[in-house]
Fold this sequence. Notes:
Mean pLDDT: 92
Shape: globular
Order of helices and strands: EEEHEEEEEEH
Number of helices: 2
Low-confidence stretches: none
Radius of gyration: 19 Å
Amino acid sequence: MSTDQVKVADGKVVVLHFELKDSDGILIDRSEETPLVYLHGADNIVVGLERQLSGASVGDKIKAIVPPEEGYGAREGSGEQAVPKDQFPEGLELIAGMQFFVETPDGGNMPIWITKVEEDVAYIDMNHPLAGVTLCFDVEIVSIRDATEEEQGHGHPHGIDGHEGHAH
């Protein structure tokens, strides 16, 4: 089977370059020189992008518009909340965009993000920074290969060639 017939599908490791903008055309992220590598079908990327990449081939250029419901969800809850800096681990440099996990009453973990930092206070939000945002991806598929058994078991790729980062 020649590589030009390989399609993006579950169990494939996909290497791609991307540019992500919001619906106003503001650049959010891009792959720069290092491409994004992900395991298709393993929730490595937002569901709306993964769905739109299914069936693509190497060299395909795809414009994918992902609504919040298939991206990082709608904004929920009370929004931003001020927390005194002394409530965070001592010596930790707090930076806007930083993610933390807090323990929930049932023993689980819940992600929170720092939205801004002032002199004595950090503002946190339980919403992902891209919650409520329509994501506009420009994607180019660089390569597609079968995931190794180990990658399938771990639920993510081990680099472009499948041989990086074996320590877990």
